[in-house]
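Changelog-adjacent note: as of this version, every example in the card shows the full chain rather than a window. The one below runs 386 residues end to end.
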Amino acid sequence: MKIGLVTGEYPPMKGGVGDYTRAIAAKLSERGHGVRVITDQRCVQPDIHSGRPIVRPIVSARWSWMDLWRVRLASTDLDIVNIQYQAAAYGAMRPPIHFLPHITVPPTAVTFHDLRHPYLFPKAGWLRERAIWGLARRAAGVILTNTEDYQHCHVQEGLPPLAEIPIGSNILCAPPGTFSASEWRAERGIRADEFVLGYFGFFNSSKGGEILMHALAALHAKGLSARLLLIGDHSGSSDHSNTAYTQHVNNLARELGIVNHILRTGYLTPPETSAALLSCDLMVMPYSDGVSFRRGSFLACLVHGRATVTTLPRLQLAGLRQRENVILTQSDAGAIARVVLEMHSDHALRRNIETGALRLSKQFQWSRIAEQLEEFFGEMLSSHRV
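Full-length structure tokens:
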């Protein structure tokens, strides 16, 4: 198949959707498909036209109506177009992208990385939700990355065929060849007696940054020598609200007097990120809306075999087992602090969860995800030809 992947962000832009697109484009190319990534002009790379997949950075940052025409011209010879949709990645959440399935020549599938409403314009109100469902109904197929969104779409009327296909971890477990966790920690001034809590990913209002800071303060109040390691950048290229929220969390850390117990790595390459994850004693990911398999940061914890404390999901997630491959608790600083103290003292439980996390991670392998996409695209094309 000749497959077009339309995405509002792509490396070197920072963001989970861009990282996902790069990973799945590479895997689909390995499986013999012709893959073309159509994306933002800011994604120019030195070898952008020379490899597989082919990357076409032809769209302005505004994702205007004229840009949709550019996408049409760049995709007319393809078999299928797959929009990687996350509202913040498309022209500050403006309307045009929602009409792309009307404009493309090949049938269009939309992968909803989440169902957050676009901004559109001031006082758009109910039109914001209507834009999401309009995009879904204009498409020939809809892909949801998690059970929560799949069930939400399943009860909507007038939608095309649906598929639940997970994302994978954008960070593979592949640290530099000379990696040693003890040396990595010592080089960054982490004492041998400190219990290192890791947090990976951008900060935003759904990821519990405030809860994390209050939990760290509570742990020090209880006498635990804990160091919080914030891994990677904490604001992306697309959603600028992350920057304001990050500043709010930083101010809270100062107010709580825990700044000296926090280490920020800043941007890291994938191997360096892998090393940082492997250097943590425990990951703490307190999503305020509950853990979900749409969270690439959580999947990275699993792939690295990290014992992870996170918050109860809204729905039961297949394969997630309390105290077997994860520790689930309330979205509350006190509850998280109590669980961290337990994990600090119970080494056997921590090791068992690490083993279980690695087993669970197998269901999010990129090769399996590519097979599922290939199958769904094939079914869409068969229906389109009838």
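Structural remarks: The mean pLDDT is 90.
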